[in-house]
Specification:
Blueprint: E1 2-10, E2 16-21, E3 26-31, H1 32-45, E4 53-56, E5 62-64, E6 69-72, H2 79-89, E7 93-95, H3 98-101, E8 111-115, E9 119-128, E10 140-149
Length: about 150
C-alpha cells in the first residue's frame, strides 16, 4: 500500500492511549471509556478495530500492539517474512521509559513487524520527542511505516 511514511504517537494523559491506524496513516487519542465501548461494539459486530499500535501509560510510556508483533534484527525480505516474524514474536508492551526500556527500543535502530487489520506493517522507530514523564518516557514516537495489504 505504501512504503516509509511517517506516523507519530504522543505520550498520553493518564487514563487513555494514543493509537495509530496504519491504513489511514493517522493517530488519535482515545480515553479508556472510548476504548472499552469500541472493543465491545467490535466484538458484537465481528469487526476488527483499526488500532494497529499504541503508546499508553502516562508515566512509563507503554509501547506496543494488541495484534501480534515482534522486534526484528533486519528488514524483512517480503511481507510474508514480516508476518511470520510478527506471529512468532510473542511481544506485548515495552516501556519507553529509560529505566525499563533497557535499550530495547532506540530511534534509528529498532525494527518491528506487526500484523494489522489491513495487512502487515514494517516499522522503523525514527525518533523520540523530549522526555515528558516523571519516569523519562519520551513525549512522542515517530515511526516510518511500510504497509502491505492482505490478500
Amino acid at each position: 500500500m505504501y512504503e516509509g511514511k511517517p506516523v507519530g504517537l504522543s505520550l498520553p494523559d493518564c487514563g487513555g492511549s494514543w493509537y495509530a491506524d496504519f491504513e489511514d496513516r493517522t493517530s488519535k487519542y482515545y480515553d479508556d471509556d472510548d476504548l472499552s465501548n469500541m472493543k465491545t461494539q467490535a466484538a458484537n459486530t465481528g469487526q476488527h478495530l483499526p488500532l494497529d499500535f499504541y503508546y499508553a501509560n502516562c508515566a512509563w510510556g507503554g509501547f506496543g500492539s494488541q495484534n501480534p508483533w515482534s522486534l526484528v534484527s533486519e528488514e524483512p525480505t517480503s511481507p510474508e517474512d514480516c508476518a511470520d516474524a510478527a506471529k512468532s514474536g510473542g511481544m506485548d508492551t515495552i516501556s519507553l521509559a529509560p529505566r525499563k526500556n533497557e535499550g530495547r527500543v532506540k530511534p534509528g535502530a529498532t525494527l518491528i513487524c506487526t500484523i494489522t487489520d489491513a495487512g502487515v506493517a514494517f516499522l522503523k522507530v525514527k525518533e523520540f520527542g523530549p522526555e515528558a514523564s516523571s519516569m523519562g518516557a519520551p513525549a512522542s514516537v515517530t515511526l516510518d511505516v511500510t504497509l502491505w495489504k492482505q490478500g
